[in-house]
Every structure is written in structure tokens, then in C-alpha cells.
């Protein structure tokens, strides 16, 4: 079959960019939201199994560890299949974990759940965390659907709306647990995952190029037809090649550091802020949770606007502006002793983090256009490790300096923001003048 006959055959292709964006966003939202239940209820497992704070720390971290590490290989897998298979597999693994946790709670909690069950809970938590790894898969899948000039908006909408799931789950969880019990909360989460899997299997479509490969077209033929339909970005090579190509593209590594600071830093603060508000200002738990949920929602939703701004003004320029906001906000929080001023600082940090996250993934398809999935895996996976690396540093300040250390710990973000500003400026300066003007 040559390219002429491929055109005349008029293959039937399914889906559209916007419909596929909706399907991937819904799948990521549900996969991420279900896992939020596990971390929020870790205290229940602690009490039942009489765990030390050290073991509880591992329990809370394990879903984020798998959710981060699996982003790398599963993101690269997108470059060979288009995304639907790895996305569904991750959601099914998450469902296995959540269903297992429901079974454990239904049969053992609270009186028969002991420390001997800790490895099992750890394993099930690791499986539940697979839902978080859908992020990099969706990034690659959507990137192949949209042209370059709409990448910022599409990826910003995907990540922005999808990342609201943990905050919404945190708000709704206490009522579910209070009225229906812990095991019922896990049953509801498992049921929502099942609905999400069914909806994604219908709505989540691979880009036209991958559909054509599945129909038996050769890569060159598929590329010609997909280009005629508007697809601009195409993969090259296997999953291993995708990871290698991305890793040897030097501009990807500054993006990893930027994402480590603002997405990993965002994950760190969603875990740290409840402790910060209670310890530094003495607010009650409900207020601390509400302030943290507000921070999380703003960081997530502003990412949508950040993607639009990155399309219009260029990813590097928007990243620089966002990092200035993060820097100013972190300085305010680090040195303020006034509640209202600290809230303003936290809002500036939220805006900076959300907008920079959008700018980073506007740049991923631009810098690594032939290995978007591989690059999304590296950036998303390694970047999320900020969620593990930053909290111990914040805790160290509090240990050394006492109550004041809860505020001084935000100097960590001041240093990271300054480093990222240098890197973002370098990325912009390294672009040819013509590209810089159009970016």
C-alpha cells in the first residue's frame, strides 16, 4: 500500500483532539483522586496497627513513590502505542490496590488489623499509587493530538483540572468517613475507579498516527495521512529509544529541575501546609485543611490559564514570570509573622507553581518533539520527587529553630526559585532569535 492508495482508502479514524483531551483528563482526575484517600486515612492505619511515625511516613509516601517512578517507563510507552494501553493498565492496577484495601478494611479493621499486616498494606498502597502515574501517559497522549500553538492550553487544562482531584477528595473525605465508615469510603473510591476506567476506555483515543499503525499502515504512510488531518508531532523509535532520545536532549534537564521545584514543591506543600498552619499560627485542624485545600485548588486551576499564557507569550517567558511570583511569595512566608500576609505569600506561591507547571509542559513537546512521551516521563517522574525531597528540609528548619523554623523553612523555596529563574533565563537566551521572538 503506497501513500496514494492510503489516501484513497479513506481509513475510518475515531476521536478528536478535544474529545480525547476530555477523556484523558477525566481518567487522570479519577486515578489521582482515588489515591488521595490513602494518604488522608494513614492515621487510621497507624492507630489500628500501632505504627511508629517512621513507618507511617513510608505508608504515606509509597503511593507517591510508585506514582512517580512509573511515570518514566509508562510515559515512554506512549511513544510506541499512543497512550491508551498504558493508561488503562495503570488504572486497573490502581483499582486492584484500592479493592484490596477495601477487602482488608472490611475483614480486619480495626480489631484484627495488626503490625504483621503492614507489608500487605504497603503493597496495596503502592498499587493504588499507579493512578498517579497516568499523568505522564496523558501528557504524551494529548501532545500527539494537538498542534504546537495549542499545546499550552491543552496540557494546562489536562493537568490543571486533573490535579484538583486530591483537594476535592480531601474536602469530601471526612464526611464520607464520618457517616459511612472507612471501608465504605474505599468501596466508593473503587466504584468511582471502575466508572473512570469504563469512561476512559470509551473516550480516551490514541492520535490518528497510532490508529493508522494499528490498522496495518506503515509508519511513513501513517505519517502522511495523519499530517493531512492536522497532526504535527510524531514519535521515533521504541520506548527505550524514547527515553534515551529525551535524556540526551540537554534542554529537557532544566525542565526537570523547574518541575521538581513547582510540581514536586506543590506536592510537598499539600502535605506540609496542614502542619505549618497548625504549628506556626495555632489554627484548628478544619482551618488548616481548608487553607491547604484552597492552596491546592488555586495551584491546579491557575495551570489552565498558565497554559493559555504560555501559548500566547512563550513558555520560557511565562516560566520566568511565574518563578518571580514563587520567589516573592516564599520570601513573604519565610519572614512574615502576620497571618494575612502569610496567606498572601501562599497565594503568590500557588500562582507561581501552577503557572510554571503549565509553562514546563508547553516546552516539553517543543524541545523534545520526537520523544514527547519519554520526555514527559522523565520530567513528570523525576520532577515529582520534589514531593519527597522537600518536606525533610522543611522539617529540619522546624527542628533546629523551633516554631520560627516553620516559616524559615520556606527559604528552601527561595533558593529553588532563584536557581530555576537562572535556568529559565538560560533556556530563553539559548534559543535562536527568530524562535525566541515567535515563542
What does this structure look like?
The protein is an all-alpha fold and 439 residues long. The chain has 2 domains: 13-235, Growth Hormone, Chain: A (Up-down Bundle); 236-439, Growth Hormone, Chain: A. 81% of the residues lie in helices and 0% in strands. It has helices at residues 3-9, 17-40, 42-49, 53-69, 71-81, 84-108, 118-128, 134-145, 151-162, 165-180, 182-203, 208-214, 219-228, 239-247, 252-281, 285-313, 315-335, 339-367, 372-383, 386-401, 405-408, 411-429, 433-438. The chain is globular, with a radius of gyration of 22 Å. The relative contact order is 0.14.
- In the predicted model, the low-confidence regions spanning at least 5 consecutive residues are 1-7
Strand content: under 5%
What's the CATH architecture name of the largest domain? Up-down Bundle
Major beta-sheet overview:
none
In whole angstroms, how far apart are the ends? 39 Å
Which shape, going by the Cα principal axes? globular
Count of individual helical segments? 23
- The CATH superfamily of the largest domain appears as MFS general substrate transporter like domains
Helix proportion of residues, in percent?
over 70%
- List the secondary-structure elements in sequence, H or E: HHHHHHHHHHHHHHHHHHHHHHH
The count of strands amounts to 0
Look at the structure and give the mean pLDDT.
87
| Gyration radius, in Å | 22 Å
What is the CATH topology classification name of the largest domain? Answer: Growth Hormone, Chain: A
> What's the number of structural domains?
2
CATH secondary-structure class of the largest domain: Mainly Alpha
